[in-house]
Specification:
Rossmann fold; 3 domains; alpha/beta; 465 residues; 11% strand
Length: 465
């Protein structure tokens, strides 16, 4: 009432022309309040095509599926359940894959995340326009899919941006890029699962460590009779090596892919050294070596202009039978400051996310270390947004998928935060998951009270440019 009274007095005191101007401004403000942000301009994008849902996707009967390819070349797939709850889950997939993206990737993602559709959410996923380690482009592709959905499919009441694994860095970056002002909130909330969230300049250091320790022990990647190259490069640009050929080399040296009883004592000892020094489980050694080979080549050739993003100067390795000899023998590389800066601009989150963020991570994730969550909290804290982040943890040893009951519970808690202001806690998420088991089956292994150690407690510290 006081504000209304002062406005009336101001109108009386103003000359007629001033009163007209003030009334016009007030009317415009009231209109803006009534209608909300101005509608987004339409995209020059073809409408998706209705098609039968892929049987392999395992979505509920009655689900409506649409697919298409956007103007940048990314394929996408959309699934809307018969009883849609008017919330859209916009998915950013993990990986990343290398090579030309194929529509089958979106089908694979829908199958893995069909629990979202079963729980009543519309789901939309992009293959991204290109393979390779480029985060901002993938975030742009994901945002483009959201706008295609709004323009050609439906208007959701709420939109949740979901990133899995490497896709969590895509979602975090997309939330920063596209939710910059109060009048532009394309995403109401962000769900990050098993996220690679320490940024590209920190998340992959241990893979360079793996390369140098492996080469010291095995000397077959490259072999002595092959051209030498710096291991941060992954592979020379003209190399024709594939994953099967690399697996042959790890089998020769470490006995990977063989029953433990069939390994020689030398193979077993070398494998134990890698597990103990790099601090990764045996079952993930081959996968990390693949990434440290083929993804490193993508980074070196396509993302950093042939300069080194990764270095290990100052890293002191421990856990072998002779740490002094190991540290004296491993190859050493210095990261290029400009390459690190450019790569970080594309891949490192800055934490400036103005909407609720809920993150879940397995304590024993063999792919993305749980300590990355500590780094992400530090990033959000530095940005002044830590109050918008809730992190929960499960007693699991998996990365790609944890349990059917968990994800609907996370969504329920996240949307209650958005709609009702009820910020989740580790306990409320655990309780919600327990309740969800009645519908989706067992699988809740949440750990209440856990906080991860710093990333440097897991990955050897080193000099940084």
């Amino acid at each position: 009432m006081a504000q209304t009274s002062s406005t009336v007095k101001a109108l009386v005191l103003l000359p007629r022309s001033g009163r007209l101007a003030l009334l016009t401004g007030l009317a415009a403000g009231l209109t803006a309040c009534a209608t909300g942000p101005a509608p987004e301009p339409p995209l020059a994008e073809a409408a998706p095509q209705l098609l039968p849902c892929p049987p392999s996707a395992e979505v509920p009967t009655g689900t409506r599926c649409l697919a298409g390819q956007d103007s940048a070349g990314a394929h996408y797939l959309i699934a809307i359940p018969e009883k849609w709850n008017q919330t859209l889950v916009l998915h950013a997939h993990g990986g990343p894959l290398l090579g030309t993206p194929q529509p089958a990737r979106a089908v694979e993602d829908l199958k893995r995340w069909s629990i979202m559709v079963k729980a009543g959410y519309a789901w939309a996923g992009s293959t991204f326009r290109q393979g390779g380690v480029e985060v901002r482009a993938a975030a742009e592709d994901t945002e483009r899919l959201r706008r295609i959905f709004l323009q050609h499919v439906a208007q959701p009441t709420f939109t949740v941006l979901h990133g899995q694994s490497w896709g969590a860095s895509v979602a975090a970056k997309g939330a920063e890029m596209f939710t910059g002002s109060a009048n532009k909130r394309p995403y109401d909330a962000v769900l990050l699962t098993s996220g690679v969230l320490a940024g590209g300049t920190r998340s992959y250091d241990f893979r360079l460590d793996l390369r140098v320790v492996y080469q010291h022990l095995c000397n077959n990647h490259p072999r002595p009779d092959e051209p030498a190259y710096p291991l941060w490069m992954g592979l020379p640009a003209d190399s024709t090596m594939n994953q099967a050929q690399l697996a042959t080399r790890t089998r020769e040296c470490l006995g990977l892919g063989m029953p433990a009883a069939q390994r020689t004592s030398e193979q077993a000892q070398k494998l134990k050294t890698i597990v103990d020094v790099i601090r990764i489980p045996e079952r993930s050694v081959q996968g990390h070596l693949n990434w440290a080979t083929f993804h490193f080549r993508d980074i070196a050739q396509k993302r950093s202009g042939g300069r080194s993003v990764f270095g290990n100067i100052g890293a002191v390795y421990s856990g072998s039978n002779d740490d002094k000899a190991l540290n004296a023998a491993v190859l050493r590389y210095a990261a290029d400051p400009q390459a690190v800066k450019a790569f970080g601009k594309d891949t490192d989150p800055n934490g400036r996310i103005p909407v609720p963020v809920l993150s879940v991570h397995a304590l024993h994730d063999p792919v993305a270390f749980v300590e990355m969550q500590h780094q992400f909290r530090q990033t959000m804290r530095a940005a002044g947004t830590a109050d918008r982040l809730v992190q929960v943890y499960t007693e699991d040893s998996e990365h790609s998928y944890l349990s059917d009951a968990l994800y609907p519970a996370l969504m329920q808690q996240l949307l209650a935060w958005v709609q009702q202001g009820r910020k989740p806690t580790q306990q409320t998420v655990a309780d919600a998951c327990t309740a969800a088991q009645a519908t989706y089956g067992p699988g809740c292994r949440l750990v209440v009270g856990f906080e991860p150690m710093p990333l440097d407690a897991r990955v050897v510290p080193r000099q940084r440019p």
